[in-house]
Amino acid sequence: MEDITAVPTSWSVQFVAALVFLYVLLKVFKRVRYTGGKRPPGPPSLPLIGHFHHLLFGLPHHSLAKIAEKYGPIVWLELGALNVVVVTSSDVAREVLKTQDHIFASRPPGIMVDMVFKKAQDLIWSPFNDHYRLARKMFTTELLSQKRMDSFQDLRRQMTFRTLRTAFEEGHTNRYINFPDLVENQFLSLTTQMLFRMDGHAQNNVLLEIIHDLVSTGWFVIEEFFPLLKPLDLSGQGRRLKNIGERYFELMDSIIDNRLKENSNSKSNTEEDLLDVLLATSTFSRVQVKLLLLDIILAGAETSSDTIVWGISQLLRHPNILERLQSELDDVIGTERLVEEADLNNLEYLQAVVKETLRLHPVVALGVPHYSTEATKVAGYDIPANTRVMLNLYAIGRDPKVWENPLKFDPSRFLNSPVDVRGHHYEILPFGAGRRKCPGMNLGLVSVAYNLAQLVHASAHRRRRTHGRKPSEVRALLLTSLAKPPPEVSAPEA
Ligand code: HEM
């Protein structure tokens, strides 16, 4: 009898073969159409999802670092319908952020950018256009200028003391402290105070809730990669982002209305905050003012607090390094007073600890995506216009071709070394480089160095002074030392 399974089997083999042939044809066609030349190498991809399966497990910067080990410092990925280039070496980063910065200084569009940032009317997500230039100038010359940062020095000091006080009080009663939460709250409160003097206000808590919701919803909306699915919003992320955007705008409207009312009252005599600065200019619409403020909250708070948490964890894991830092602080500051921001430039080892922390733990591990505005060549490969470019800052800082013993936490590698973290040395780029370099870098560096120094110095000092004393005496001592007014100094160029 004829084998009835034979026919369908051969059909299905032919069918699958035809599909594979069509797929290969499509890939070849796509390659020629998109780049008109040689694309960077990349791992095997699957139909429809492209390379997504390579990023399903683990942290994306870890998976991308592994891919780069195999395929080299510039890799081409297709994530659904989007083309992404991933850069993983200082040489290629220099080409993107310096030699061809004018081509890569834009940002990609996206669902989150549309829903929350009203089609990129902020700074972080703005394409490289006239609005961007105005907003960037506002950040560098006004909102984050050295003068403005100096004016918030006392606030930074008070906020750090608040954290120290809580940590010491809780620690003294042997209660568990959630240090990351403590520092994160410190920086969120500091930021909202700089923006609109709102500490302890009920609106502050509502704002913090909105920010938490936004961060936990995630920047990358899955439908972005599969545009046909966009209207269906299967992930629900679109709806959530829309709702978060509306809540944020409603809250900010009431804050701004109150402020305008207060400002029209001639008796109001409070210090200028960043909302006042933005309202005083007619350059930006109300929507833009709200979004520029949102940028500062999102980019400024968790970046500094996460870096401090990494720094402290590394110091706790390396008692010899902690001890060396303590002795530098004792030598330079002594035991009779607390560290001030003006001391930071005299603390060479502390600066090395900060750099080493940022080398191993750049908290924006994949940077913020860049976007090519015209077709070009990078490292000999053709990159089409409208390609997203991600820089794996995490893997660049750990590149064994550049760094000796790259995984070792060793601040002394930065002693007597010209290498810094400010975007001039492409082997370590925690703040990016070029036109899009982080405008909050000085503030971030001062905040991280000051908090690490204060925590390490004050805790060593406290151990010495409180040895054998009663809890009530410890509390009195602590409160007296923290209540001392700061000396009249201005923040240094860190
Ligand atoms: C340790 C602290 C910080 C780190 C590690 C950090 C890192 C970064 C990185 C990697 C970028 C992307 C650069 C690029 O696109 O190539 C960035 C952008 C940005 N950062 Fe920071 N940042 C920190 C603190 C701050 C602070 C304190 C602020 C403001 C208060 C801030 C505001 C911004 C803004 C507005 C951008 C977007 C700039 C643009 O698109 O032109 N950052 N930051």
From TrEMBL:
Heme binds at residue 438. Keywords: Heme, Iron, Membrane, Metal-binding, Monooxygenase, Oxidoreductase, Transmembrane, Transmembrane helix. Pfam families: p450. It comes from the Eukaryota. GO terms for biological process: secondary metabolite biosynthetic process. The chain crosses the membrane at residues 12-29. Its cofactor is heme. One of its GO terms (molecular function) is iron ion binding. PANTHER family: CYTOCHROME P450 98A9, OS09G0441700 PROTEIN. Belongs to the cytochrome P450 family. This is Cytochrome P450.
